[in-house]
Amino acid sequence: MTKVFIDGEAGTTGLQIAERLRQRTDLTVLRIDEARRKDAEARARLLEEADVSILCLPDDAAREAVAMAGDRCRILDASTAYRVDPDWVYGLPELTPDSRAAIAGADRVSNPGCYPQGFVLLTRPLIDAGVLPRDLPLRLHAVSGYSGGGRALIETYQGFDEQTRERFASRAYGLTLAHKHVPEMQRYSGTSHAPLFAPMVGDYYQGMLVNVPLFTRELTGAPTPEDLHGLLAERYRDEPFVRVLPVGAPGSLDGNFLDATALNGTNRIELMVFGHAEQVLLVARLDNLGKGASGAAVQNLNLMLGVDETTGLL
After folding, report:
1. Residue 230 pLDDT > 90
2. Catalytic-labelled residue, pool 78, 92, 114, 127
3. 191 and 119 in contact (C-beta within 8 Å)?
């Protein structure tokens, strides 16, 4: 029986991972006493006992946990601490044909970020195909539910009165243009430049849209939306959690609106292409707590344990 320890289970991502593992009969989740969850000695003992430890901690705490664990167990880290570290495997199974084998054989796997997954899965196949020039500066606009900000932001939003809530309905952030996800986006998409990332948080709990606008005249061969859709559809044809919708996403719109919450509670991501001869909009829709965090962690854990990667996931 495989033993799994979630260090930081009390946090938003940790709670969701624990929920997804609760009904599993192929593993045992080791739990720390609530009163001792920050006790280094108690945590060290569980890190030593576990076969795989999942870290759901802030970056500095994750680094401390890795140092504490040493070579006692395999680690899947959900923080941003190691996402561009060359000694760690990036846990995005859909990234390349070799990604699953690398994750399965790794002792150190870094779980990917929510926004980066949408951006990377939209752009990497087009860059690899040479249609999206590697040196073309890219922009992405995105919106997420407030759960992406962790417990403090969740408590802030859930504590609003109606007058305050109106002011917080939609807020831009990351305005220094130095968001911690940018290095991850650049590295794994293959673009030569750090993308200009403009995120927003909305007054809803979970769900995410990632938008990448492009001018076809900047692309190699001036491809049509149908051409770009074809490349994405071919690349992800056999992926269990990635669905490429038809051009224009017919049947998926509410009038002229696209719902950010349609995939909540799942580990699925939908990729869409909108546009015309001169402009294209690439869109990814996912649950920031599902495929964007805890669902992705369970998918990676499954690969590390050598079981079907869809086990316990919708």
Report:
1. yes
2. 114
3. no
